[in-house]
Amino acid sequence: MLLAVGYHYVAERTPEAPRAIFPVTTGRLAAQIEELSREYELVSRDELLAAVTGDAGLPDRACVLTFDDGLRC
Length: 73
Prior knowledge:
By secondary structure, this protein is α/β, with parallel strands linked by helices. It has helices spanning 26-39, 45-52; strands at residues 2-7, 10-11, 24-25, 41-42, 62-67. Helix 2 links the parallel strand 4 (41-42) and strand 5.
């Protein structure tokens, strides 16, 4: 099993005006990563690529975090 969690907007605090992309605060991000790591083994991009090419396997409960850095902020 592979769980992929994508983040699009991380900020120190929640914006006052609603946004089309739901932000997560840095504090909440840390809490989510801690929670995910209790249930899943976090894997790196390199570990994921090695599994895709067949050079290595993934843990039974693997999780990869992705960050979309397309926003100017």
